[in-house]
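Appendix C: a fully annotated inverse folding record. The material below is reproduced so that readers can follow the format used throughout the book. The structure is listed first as tokens, followed by the designed sequence.
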């Protein structure tokens, strides 16, 4: 069973729309949703969680239509939004007690373990926590009721690099169980490159690419040459020009003979793909 299935999803606002989005997250995998601010990442997550109503298309989460008996399915989903909001006067310990009344499978021992792992103090009030600490608390809550699916919207933002690395390890460990899956959006592309099995590029509400990470990295190359050599390339995903020459990203089986090429990282691929839609990238 796939963790998430999206078919022909549409949602229109004044000045923005999600356009015919198709996405599948297989069970046991981690998918990274990459996009610039305003690309539609948070809107897509809200549609998946049925927080906003779709205009068209289908969404299935853990095998169920997300409009049909979704209350039961939500017990199996751990969610960390981009802004964790809880009553400011409650302590971290009291929040755990509140969550034990919210989730049937709440595990107080697991919650305490995650608090210790993430360096959170039980006596601190929510209002006293920094943005990064609030995000850590959101992660601890999401993990402590034994979900099958984690949906994380910018969950690594506000965390220092050491803690981000620890959190990434937690998510990787989580998906060792083939019944567990993760959908995570982030603008920190390096985190997703370390963590994810699948990568999806969103731009202006449209899906540009969605493939296995390793296949993407194997399929594309970054090519370097003189400005004239790069200008003459046909079929590049995108190009970048500097006073010293140019670069292009293209499928490896299309690289012209005689030009220098090398491996591409996911951030480069995303930037060149977006800029390829908008015109050449100049430095």
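Designed amino acids, in order:
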């Amino acid at each position: 069973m796939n963790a998430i299935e999206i078919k022909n999803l549409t949602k229109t606002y004044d000045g923005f729309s999600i356009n015919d989005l198709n996405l599948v997250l297989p069970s046991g995998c981690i998918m990274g949703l990459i996009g610039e601010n305003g690309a539609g990442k948070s809107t897509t997550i809200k549609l998946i969680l049925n927080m906003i109503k779709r205009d068209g298309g289908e969404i299935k989460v853990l095998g169920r239509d997300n409009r049909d008996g979704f209350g039961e399915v939500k017990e199996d989903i751990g969610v960390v939004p981009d802004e964790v909001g809880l009553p400011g006067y409650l302590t971290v310990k009291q929040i755990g007690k509140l969550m034990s009344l919210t989730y049937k499978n709440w595990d107080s021992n697991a919650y305490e373990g995650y608090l210790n792992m993430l360096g959170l103090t039980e006596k601190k009030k929510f209002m006293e926590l920094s943005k990064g600490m609030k995000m850590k608390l959101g992660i601890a809550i999401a993990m402590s009721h034994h979900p099958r699916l984690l949906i994380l919207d910018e969950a690594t933002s506000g965390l220092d690099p050491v803690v981000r690395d620890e959190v990434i390890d937690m998510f990787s460990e989580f998906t060792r169980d083939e019944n567990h899956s993760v959908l995570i959006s982030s603008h920190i592309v390096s985190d997703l490159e370390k963590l994810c099995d699948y990568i999806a590029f969103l731009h202006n509400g449209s899906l540009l690419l969605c493939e296995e990470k390793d296949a993407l990295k194997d399929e594309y190359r970054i090519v370097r040459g003189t400005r004239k050599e790069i200008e003459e390339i046909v079929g590049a995903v995108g190009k970048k020009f500097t006073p010293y020459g140019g670069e292009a990203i293209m499928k490896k089986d299309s690289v012209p003979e005689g030009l220098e090429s090398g491996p591409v990282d996911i951030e480069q691929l995303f930037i060149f793909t977006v800029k390829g839609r908008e015109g050449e990238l100049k430095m």
